[in-house]
Amino acid sequence: MSEKQKKTSVNSVQQFGSLIDDAFLTIDGDLTIKEINGACIRLLGENLIGSSLSDKLIYNNLDTEVETCITSGSIIEFSTTPKINQYRHMIGRILPLSDGRLAVLLMDMTLQHNIEKMRRDFVANVSHELRSPLTSLLGFVETMRNNLEMEQSVRESFLKIMDEEANRMSRLIDDLLSLSRVEIEEHIAPSGQVSVKEAVKSAIDALAYRADTSKHKIEFNDVRKNTEQTSQIRGDLDEIIEVFHNLLDNALKYSYPSTTIDVSLSENQTGNLVLAIKNNGDGIDEKHIPRLTERFYRVDKGRSRQMGGTGLGLAIVKHIINKHRGQLFIRSKPKHETVFEVHLPYFSDPN
Ligand SMILES: Nc1ncnc2c1ncn2[C@@H]1O[C@H](COP(=O)(O)OP(=O)(O)OP(=O)(O)O)[C@@H](O)[C@H]1O
Ligand SMILES: [Mg+2]
């Protein structure tokens, strides 16, 4: 290859390669890397020129693929992972060039791979969560059908369980629909005005009977300085109530009976509204906290399920708060107070 040709080819890889986010490089027949674009360093690491591509990728038969590519003269495709970051997933394509070198394109498929994995996990979780109550219902139907002489009291207790299981399925479907609705509209910030106090009171009223039954006391304090001027936030009333309701429902479920749940309104340093819900229970180990808003994530699956939980409550909370351009903070330790804080911007439309 003449010097002029070499210069042109180096320029083309760098120039065309700078247009794409994927790694684009050339190698010779023994896999030595000759030219690279900027993305190669990000995806494969430093000091690439002169090294072997097979040292940079986790793929056993790269030399065989290259040989096939040269002899067949056609594009070869393979899936691989870079050695410097084994969480990345790539699709590679090798194309033989007329001067004996080979052009290699490595497309970063990590995002697609993770989305696909999330979708598969989600379908598996939903199926599992629906199957458990359904199996139980079918079992009771079968037992009752085979025992027509069943005692009235046994029959009543079976029907009670069947009723609970059917309600659990119905709640799960409601929560899934709620989650999907909020997710679809998450990018559209709500335009209405919501009275925060009204929303808090509505959530407390809705759970008052439950709190009474478990002998919980719910204390509400508004410690903001100028509550008259700053009582409205930009939002959707039903969704804000849903956030407060879910957090209060958790506080009741996961705290010790006969304890006090503190609900307070205050402001943070940037002047945003802060709703804090504090409760005393077993608390949450630090390692679980970042995962609590994942769909179906429960610290103690058995216990939460026993209480009728689907593990979607906090996922819904997170998406509604995102939609309202707010933030959720969780603080807890085992055997310590648990605090869920919702930070929301006030309504500040000059019109
Ligand atoms: N106040 C709290 N104290 C201790 N643990 C909590 C608290 N709130 C939530 N958790 C933990 O976070 C998990 C997820 O909560 P989330 O509200 O998403 O689901 P759930 O309450 O189990 O079911 P659902 O809300 O869908 O009925 C719970 O299962 C529980 O382990
Ligand atoms: Mg919950």
Question: Could you characterize what this model shows?
Answer:
- This protein has 9 helices and 13 strands.
- It has 351 residues and is of the alpha+beta class.
- It has 3 domains: 3-108, PAS domain (Beta-Lactamase); 112-184, Helix Hairpins; 187-351, Heat Shock Protein 90.
- The N and C termini lie far apart (70 Å).
- The mean pLDDT is 90.
End-to-end distance: 70 Å
Q: Specify the helix fraction band.
A: 40-55%
Structural class from helices and strands?
alpha+beta
- How many beta-strand segments? 13
Q: Output the CATH homologous superfamily of the largest domain.
A: Histidine kinase-like ATPase, C-terminal domain
How does CATH name the architecture of the largest domain?
2-Layer Sandwich
What is the third-level CATH name, the topology of the largest domain?
A: Heat Shock Protein 90
| CATH level 1 name of the largest domain | Alpha Beta
Mean pLDDT: 90
Characterize this entry briefly.
The protein is of the alpha+beta class.
Per-chain topology:
Elements: H1 3-17, E1 23-27, E2 33-36, H2 38-44, E3 57-58, H3 62-72, E4 76-82, E5 90-96, E6 102-108, H4 110-146, H5 152-184, E7 193-195, H6 196-213, E8 217-222, E9 232-234, H7 237-253, E10 260-267, E11 273-280, H8 301-306, H9 313-323, E12 327-331, E13 337-344
Parallel strand pairs: 8-10
Antiparallel strand pairs: 1-2, 1-6, 3-4, 4-5, 5-6, 7-9, 10-11, 11-13, 12-13
Helix pairs in contact: 4-5, 5-9, 6-7, 7-9
The site of adenosine-5'-triphosphate has 22 residues, from helix 7 and helix 9.
